[in-house]
Design a protein that fits this description.
4-stranded mixed sheet, globular
Length: about 70
């Protein structure tokens, strides 16, 4: 079974761009939620981060990675 991968990003966040580039280079298929386009998703993001407005947030199945840590 393929895990669903979701990336919460924002264009003003250079770490979001870096993570997207790494995911693309690794061939990872993901659903991007750009918070500048979908501001209604901030509440969901804050629920994942304990109230913080931080990007990127990467969800891989049950695993949630807050902030940029690189791929792999």
């Amino acid at each position: 079974m393929v895990e669903k991968v979701v990336l919460y990003s924002h264009p003003d966040c250079t770490y979001s761009g870096a993570l997207k580039e790494e995911l693309d280079e690794a061939g990872v298929v993901y659903n991007e939620i750009d918070l500048s386009v979908r501001p209604e998703e901030w509440d969901t993001l804050e629920g994942l981060t304990g109230g913080e407005r931080i990007t990127p947030v990467l969800i891989e199945g049950e695993a949630i990675t807050i902030g940029y840590h690189g791929v792999g």
